[in-house]
Structures are given as structure tokens and as C-alpha cells.
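[Automated response] Your request has been received and processed.

Submitted sequence:
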Amino acid sequence: MNSGFKRLPAYFYRSEGGREPVREWLKGLDREDRKVVGEDIKDIEFSWPTGMPLVRSIGRELWEVRSRL
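Generated structure:
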């Protein structure tokens, strides 16, 4: 799976004011849930293209990670 480079780097939405609500939400999760989401993001970054059920397009080159917590 890991070929040594990210095929699709992940970026978090950042508001004009500099807030990153998804990153803030992730930091509020317990350790095990953060690990699940982090592993899913890593799998997408290094194994792209990936499809459902793990990732879904929400348009205009935006993708949603669909972790199962």
C-alpha cells in the first residue's frame, strides 16, 4: 500500500479567519477514534484512487473521508 509518497495529499478546510473546524473536531475525539480517522486519511493519501465506502466526492475536487467510528 505505502509506495513512499502521497498520491493525494490531504488538506483541511481553513476559514478566512484561520480556523480549521475539521482539525478542531478531530482534536476533540478520543485517542482511538483519532487513530481510526488518521489511518483512513493515510490510506487515502497513499492508495489513491480509492472509492466508496471510504471516500466520496462532494464535488469540485473535494472529497469526504467516510470513517466508521
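Summary generated for your ticket: Residues 11 and 48 are 15 Å apart (CA to CA). Residues 1-69 form one domain.
If you did not submit this request, please reply to this message.
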